[in-house]
Amino acid sequence: MATRIVLLALVGATLALLGVLVLARLRPRTPDLGLSGGRLRPCPSSPNCVVSEGGDPAHSVTPIPLRGSPAEGMRDLIELLARLPRVRIVAARPDYVHAEFRSALFGYVDDFEARLDERERRIEVRSASRSGTSDLGVNRRRVATIRAALEKR
Question: Across the chain, what does the average pLDDT equal?
């Protein structure tokens, strides 16, 4: 009898957790995207966002240095994003790109943005989760992976 009660409690807790996850997926926060004053927007206080310009130390990442011309750098970035799994490019301009990354298991969406800074010869980046609080470092690793792939070219 006690085993049955424990099993029912575990099933109930699992269903409740799945319900919370599904509701979070159905109600993603509205992303605050795009440029503001010619720069990427700062991260919110939650730890599930990183940005290379104007960020506090907890949210800060290094921008991506340009290897070739600015046009080649942005073209290489867009081509790389287009080859990645579960990525949809929402906007692609010569100086700005916005892509949505969808998680494999629950389909959560993270927004990746990049802005070309021709004067500094680099690409500024921002990656943020739309829902939840913690991303377990996913956005920081995403930016590092993209930077490493572009630096290999």
Answer: 88
Segment 60-80 shows an average pLDDT of 96
Q: Is the pTM of this model over 0.85?
A: no
Check residue 17 and give its pLDDT: 55
Shortest CA distance to 127 belongs to which of 107, 104, 147?
147
Q: Which of 81, 80, 124, 116 is nearest to 102 (CA)?
A: 81
- Would you call 115 exposed, middle or buried from its count of C-beta atoms within 10 A (0-12, 13-18, 19+)? buried
Q: Residues 87, 77, 39, CA angle at the centre, nearest 5°?
A: 95
> Exposed e or buried b for every residue in 126-153, given b needs 16+ CB within 10 A?
bbbbbbeeebeebbbebbeebbebbeee
Element (H, E) at 142: helix 138-152
SS3 25: helix
Q: Which residue has the tokens 């926060």?
A: 29
Locate tokens 């010869």: which residue? 121
Over residues 114-127, the pLDDT tens digits come to 999 999 999 999 99
Domains annotated for the chain, with CATH where assigned, are: 31-152 (3.30.310)
- What tokens were used for 9? 């409690």
